Amino acid sequence: MRHSSPESTASMRVNSWWWLIQMTPLKASTLALSDSSPPGWRGGCRGWQVAVDHLQEALSIYRDIGSIGGEVTVLNEAGALSRERGDLGEARSRHQQALDLARAIDSSWDEVNALAGLGRYALADDGTAEGEAGLRRALMIFQRIGSAEAAGVSAELDALSGLGQGRSMV
């Protein structure tokens, strides 16, 4: 009988969960609440818990195989999902963990997503000035690295200011 190594087993687990951690927070929220969710999702509270459980499993897998980049991605997704669920303390904690790890591995992409997540958390927690400042920092990095995400963050800032100032950050 052939036995898989722990590394290959963990790698197979990562592949099986990859679809989940690639979803946007909005899609995760929609799936968590939808009656037409994929098999295993039942919508409502159960759907949220399934999403949280799957992200926790993905986080465990990435930690097991030593993928800090994967860990950061999952932490940011978990933070976004927590914010969508209204668990702001958990959202802040997850995005902060992601930010710390992103900086440790010098990943601008992961850092900017964590900063944007922290900005959105602050906005949800009635910290408009702090949230706007976080999103402006994220916008500057998105623009510096040439990411298409800059347009979305700029639109968020435009909606906050009502004056179109989000785009003026070049």
How is this structure best described in words?
The chain has eight helices and no strands. The protein has 170 residues and is mostly helical. It has one domain: Serine Threonine Protein Phosphatase 5, Tetratricopeptide repeat, CATH 1.25.40. The protein is globular and about 45 Å long.
Radius of gyration: 17 Å
Secondary structural class? mainly alpha
How would the global form be characterised? globular
Uncertain runs are 23-27, 34-43, 163-170
The overall strand count is 0
The CATH topology is: Serine Threonine Protein Phosphatase 5, Tetratricopeptide repeat
Percent strand equals: under 5%
The percent of residues in helical segments reads over 70%
Count of DSSP H/I helices: 8
Shape-level CATH architecture: Alpha Horseshoe
Distance between the termini: 60 Å
Report mean pLDDT, rounded to a whole number: 78
Order of helices and strands: HHHHHHHH
List keywords for this structure.
170 residues, mainly alpha, Serine Threonine Protein Phosphatase 5, Tetratricopeptide repeat, 8 helices, 76% helix
What does this entry show, briefly?
The chain has 170 residues and is mainly α.
Question: Would you spell out the secondary-structure blueprint of this structure?
Answer:
Elements (H helix, E strand, L loop, with lengths): L5 H16 L3 H9 L10 H22 L2 H18 L2 H17 L3 H17 L3 H17 L4 H13 L9
Helix pairs in contact: 1-3, 2-3, 2-4, 3-4, 4-5, 4-6, 5-6, 6-7, 7-8
